[in-house]
Design goal:
single chain, 35% helix, alpha/beta, 8 helices, 188 residues
Length: 188
């Protein structure tokens, strides 16, 4: 089983999340993709964050593909950081090939994540191009440090089976929608 893991606050979920998921499912030849709705991103302000149950329900409406599963597993297991979630999943799901999915905008600050180098060394990563991050993303600290682990884009379908560290940067049509902009519009 090849499962993509796409973490975020999903506050609110939007068509951009669904677009990234479809790209990942197709280009990475994944069997499933799990949206990991986080209880709260440690690097972001959580004041005003909608309740997790509400965000999961909204995400389920957007995730219109039977291969996409929206889950609050991080809250269930008490994980606050991605590295903790990945350790838990590897321990409890032997034989599953997990791929971490992130937008290129997250790659820019990935080196601020707790145990980010462990994440890279234990889990293949797919970076999906995002508006405004295309050129800057590959100069990010994590991208530079693990540049030799980058697979050619045409080999994306073999990422789930690649031995970490391994990552691929996927280009293609992009959706400019963002949860940050939608929250600002909601408040305004």
């Amino acid at each position: 089983m090849r499962i993509g893991l796409f973490g975020g606050s999903f506050d609110p979920p939007h068509e951009g999340h669904f677009h990234v998921s479809r790209v990942a499912l197709r280009r990475l030849a994944l069997d499933r993709l799990w949206w990991l709705a986080t209880p709260g991103n440690p690097l972001k302000e959580t004041a005003g964050l909608q309740p997790l149950k509400q965000r999961i329900a909204a995400a389920q409406k957007i995730a219109r593909d039977p291969r996409i599963v929206v889950t609050g597993v991080e809250a269930e297991i008490g994980a606050r950081y991605t590295a903790d979630t990945l350790r838990y999943l590897r321990r409890h799901c032997p034989g599953v090939c997990f791929v971490w999915i992130m937008g290129a905008d997250n790659l820019l600050q990935f080196d601020r994540w707790r145990d980010w180098d462990e994440i890279v060394r234990t889990t293949p990563i797919a970076v999906i191009d995002r508006p405004g991050a295309t050129l800057a993303a590959m100069s990010a600290k994590a991208a530079q440090r693990f540049a030799r682990a980058r697979l050619p884009e045409e080999d994306a379908a073999r990422l789930a089976d690649a031995r970490p560290p391994a990552f691929v940067y996927l280009h293609g049509p992009r959706v400019a929608q963002s949860s940050t902009a939608l929250r600002s519009a909601r408040r305004g």
